[in-house]
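FW: tagging you since you asked about this chain on Friday. Here's the raw sequence from the shared folder, copied in full. Didn't touch anything.
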Amino acid sequence: MSSTLQAPRARRAALAFIFVTVLIDFLAFGLILPGLPHLVERLAGGSTATAAYWIAVFGTAFAAIQFICSPIQGALSDRFGRRPVILLSCLGLAVDFVFMALANSLPWLFIGRVVSGVFSASLTAANAYIADVTSPEERAKSYGIVGAAFGVGLVLGPVLGGQLSHIDSRLPFWFAAGLTMLNFCYGWFVLPESLPSERRSRKFDWSHANPIGSLVLLKRYPQVFGLAAVIFLVNLAQYVYPSVFVLFADYQYRWKEDAVGWVLGLVGVLSVLVNVLLIGPGVKRFGEHRTLLFGLGCGVLGFVIYGFADVGWVLVAALPFGTLLTVAGPAAQTLLTRQVDASEQGRVQGALTSLVSVAGIVGPATFAGSFGYFIGVDAPVHLPGAPFFFAAVFLGIGALIAWRYARPTVAVDATAAVVEPT
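HL: got it, structure written out here
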């Protein structure tokens, strides 16, 4: 692994594993999405109202646990290396999926979802790994490939999970367990360590391994703090899709499950294409700053069109504009990693994942609540597209922050040599 001929091959294999890890994580969770509500409903004695309550509790608890655990995983990866944290997360998820497949009551299933929130924070260490083994110029492309993994999981997971849940509501959990266990075995033999011992933190610091402490860490870097705010607003805006899209499409266009599935699948395909084909060349040609502002501007335009679209074909036609928002995340992530020392990449990535978890807590209430209010009889104006307008406002604020904080500066690690996996 240490020879000059083997090093590029080792780095490619490591990045391929990170891609597969993120893909399997999102694919596994996508697998259980169609069947989970039905399993909850069955465990709730057939009561749809009770099932809806538990699903809401599951979602909030999952995001809250990620908020707490992401900085812990990041700090652990800074102290002990990325490899053990990533592998432990893979193994923990595999065991937890088996636990949920065997759960025979709602409290036990709830415990399983909480444990999933603990181990699914592996994206923190995965992002830090990418920062370790790629040059600043190549990071946006690498983060874009990770984003493509999310898109592929978004497309394939629910489709495959829906088919498996028709056979048995617990089968998607078993299938997800098998995938994550295979990924653990693959990583055990393939994944090298990316953070040498001399670049690790000297000790595990609890002051930075908690959500509040990790956010305080961000304030040490004013530009990082601004970029983190942009990443938070981008993720918050994108929660409009899982929060209200199905209800909005049914209310506004009378689209049923099959039509919504095809449209969401199209969103996933477009997301993959943007991540794979556009982010790398775009950043190389225009730089992270302009690419970030371009993505935010396209996102604002797309969400405004969604909000005004009174016929379905207008929304579908606007999807390419909305999907171009995808380029903003990797561009902001790359700008941020340039400002942080290698020994703190894990903790900073943990803080970012915590912020995304906060978006997962705030977003559904914001968008679902505004949708319900503006289609209700007490609304001052009938406006079903209100959630999309709120999402556009969030992105507009993000664009203003990015204009101030995303300007190119001298990077902390811009001249540092890329660390080869060992």
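FW: The chain has two domains: 1-192, 210-414.
HL: agreed, and Confidence is low (pLDDT under 50) at residues 1-6, 410-419.
FW: great, closing this out.
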